[in-house]
């Protein structure tokens, strides 16, 4: 079979979402199939309708071994989708610690910002994924980064009532008095959302 015809098959797009076979293999964790597609010159950084690459899909679903294969074939670790999110954003959002570690080992931009100006640490903090946040902080993520509304990761942790995540951020010198666009501190957000246990915890650090 010619290289041209092999490439046509491996990159033939679905009518739905403009996905390639490599997108689907990556999404479902089919490493052997992905390897075969790459042998036949599949476009490793192909994008679908949402500008997501196969590595984004592997990241969303936590398929570390498949992601390692993609990275071995020079997948773009900092590719951004329509929301300007990288694979590391998605790993942090979905609590895939091992995947996030793999991205960081391949020099993922730890402080990359998405359309909301949120970093991976913002998303891990918002969702309460302490193990992912700890990993990001180990790699020197910016604990003071601010999103579109000038909220730090600590604002988001307190807003959602993630006390143990907040404790981790405070251990890494997060600013208790940081104010968002509306001049609210993390304590304001915890109080307005009814997280009394977080309110009391906060006072221990005053």
Task: List strands and helices in order, with pairings.
Elements: H1 3-11, H2 21-28, H3 31-39, H4 54-61, H5 64-72, H6 87-93, H7 97-105, H8 120-127, H9 130-138, H10 153-159, H11 163-171, H12 186-192, H13 196-203
Helix pairs in contact: 2-3, 2-4, 4-5, 4-6, 6-7, 6-8, 8-9, 8-10, 9-11, 10-11, 10-12
Describe the structure.
The chain contains 13 helices and no strands. The protein has helices at 3-11, 21-28, 31-39, 54-61, 64-72, 87-93, 97-105, 120-127, 130-138, 153-159, 163-171, 186-192, 196-203. The chain has a domain at 19-109: Ankyrin repeat-containing domain (Serine Threonine Protein Phosphatase 5, Tetratricopeptide repeat), CATH 1.25.40. Residues 1-10 have low confidence and may be disordered. The longest helix is centred in the first third of the chain and has 9 residues, at 3-11. The radius of gyration is 19 Å and the shape is elongated. It is mainly α and 206 residues long. The protein is 52% helix and 0% strand.
Keywords:
Serine Threonine Protein Phosphatase 5, Tetratricopeptide repeat, 13 helices, mainly alpha, elongated, 206 residues
Contiguous low-pLDDT stretches (5 residues minimum) are 1-10
- Shape by Cα distribution: elongated
* CATH fold title of the domain at 19-109: Serine Threonine Protein Phosphatase 5, Tetratricopeptide repeat
Total strands: 0
Average pLDDT, rounded to a whole number, is: 89
Largest sheet composition = none
SS field, number of helical segments: 13
CATH architecture level-2 label of the domain at 19-109 = Alpha Horseshoe
Percent strand equals under 5%
Helix content: 40-55%
Gyration radius from CA atoms, angstroms: 19 Å
């Amino acid at each position: 079979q010619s290289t041209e015809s092999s490439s046509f098959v491996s990159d033939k797009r679905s009518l739905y979402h403009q996905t390639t076979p490599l997108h689907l293999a990556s999404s479902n964790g089919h490493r052997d199939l992905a390897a075969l597609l790459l042998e036949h010159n599949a476009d490793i950084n192909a994008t679908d309708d949402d500008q997501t690459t196969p590595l984004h899909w592997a990241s969303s679903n936590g398929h570390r071994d498949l992601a390692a294969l993609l990275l071995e074939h020079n997948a773009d670790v900092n590719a951004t989708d329509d929301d300007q999110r990288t694979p590391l954003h998605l790993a942090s959002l979905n609590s895939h610690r091992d995947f996030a570690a793999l991205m960081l080992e391949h020099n993922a931009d730890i402080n990359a910002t998405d359309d909301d100006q949120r970093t991976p640490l913002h998303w891990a903090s918002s969702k309460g994924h302490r193990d992912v946040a700890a990993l990001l902080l180990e790699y020197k993520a910016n604990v003071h980064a601010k999103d579109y509304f000038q909220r730090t990761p600590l604002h988001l942790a307190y807003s959602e009532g993630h006390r143990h995540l907040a404790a981790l951020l405070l251990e890494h010198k997060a600013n208790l008095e940081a104010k968002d666009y509306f001049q609210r501190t993390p304590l304001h957000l915890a109080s307005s959302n009814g997280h009394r246990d977080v309110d009391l915890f906060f006072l221990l650090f005053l």
